[in-house]
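ok here's Alpha/beta hydrolase, seq below lol
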Amino acid sequence: MSDRTTILLVHGAWHGAWCWGPVRERLEAKGWDVVAIDLPTVHAADKAELGMADDAAAVAEAIASIEGGVTVVAHSYGGVPTTQGALDPSVHHIVYIAAFALDEGETLLASVGGVEPDWWHIEGPLATAGDESHPPRELFFGDLDPAQAAWASAQLASQSARAFREPLTRVAWRDTPSTYVITEQDAIFPVVAQEALAARSGSEAHRLATSHSPFLSQPDAVVDIIERAARV
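and the structure came out like this:
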């Protein structure tokens, strides 16, 4: 359809393309072309050796493989490699969902205060999220029903810690329109920080009364926002 871009979905830290399932199903049912990628710092066999630049290269490669215009949707950490990698002129719009829309020279680690939060667990080159004191269902999935939250928590994987320490060298939101979805019941990403990133990036802000994972808890609302951004 000439008035529609292809939608590229980029997951956050410890997640995978699986997390977009409800959103992808709804978009495809409405006739949208959708691509969801697995970032290499979470899913590659050699992920311990990789960093944010490798994820950014994966985003750029996915964009280059799509014919026509692209709308990139990025969640949380996924906003970092998207900001670095979504520089192709074919990118029509970026939708940041509770995402780190950082600036040149910034890192995710510095943006959270320069010290790993106590729910990050660094073991050598890899990081995992959550423990008995900080269950993933409370960190990421607080507004899902228990069964859905347990399923999603079981899908989380380790990630290269290097990805959180590599600085951005390029910034896509300077030249590309963007939307920012603020998650108002987020247990790990303060609303005031999301508001500041949305304002600095010049994004059109939307607010959802959800946890850090609205693509699972309120997929219809997320689809509505993506559709508005993705139309040419």
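fwiw The chain is about 35% helix and 20% strand. kinda neat tbh
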